[in-house]
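hey m, so remember when u said the tokens were messed up on ur end? i reran from scratch. heres the input so u can diff it against urs
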Amino acid sequence: MNMRIGFGYDLHRLVENRELIIGGVKIENPLGLLGHSDGDVLLHSIIDSILGAFALNDIGTYFPDTEDTYKDISSLFLLKQTMTIIPGKVINIDATIVAESPKMAPYIPQMKKNIAETTNIDVSRISIKATTNEGIGSIGKNEAIACYCVSLCEEVSK
């Protein structure tokens, strides 16, 4: 087996007049994430971690913010497309969302379900946690949300 580990990170500003979409789940909140796509920090960090595991380029290489095709697109679609690019499979995903508010716990089961369905991995192999930034920095001031992710993947033998 050729196991590979990838790391991903993403951060987006919170702004008015945008929906808050994380893990493909619409979360009731007065502010949403600014981005060319839907701004889904969880899925963007997952995509980068998967691409990184296979030593491929970052999310912006495959889905550039200069392309109108990707304007306001669902990041679940981008994740699905990523799965067609990689030369192997995802074994497990471990992600941490960093947000002062809203609380993520009620939404995590649906996020995990969305990711499992999109990546074809069992939901038991997906870990999503959430924490705050204890009032520090742009995240702590509720100006942004970030996410860190590590993915374990297996490369298909050539």
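this time it looks ok to me. The beta strands are 2-15, 20-22, 25-27, 32-33, 88-98, 126-131, 144-155. if urs says something different then somethings off w ur setup not the seq
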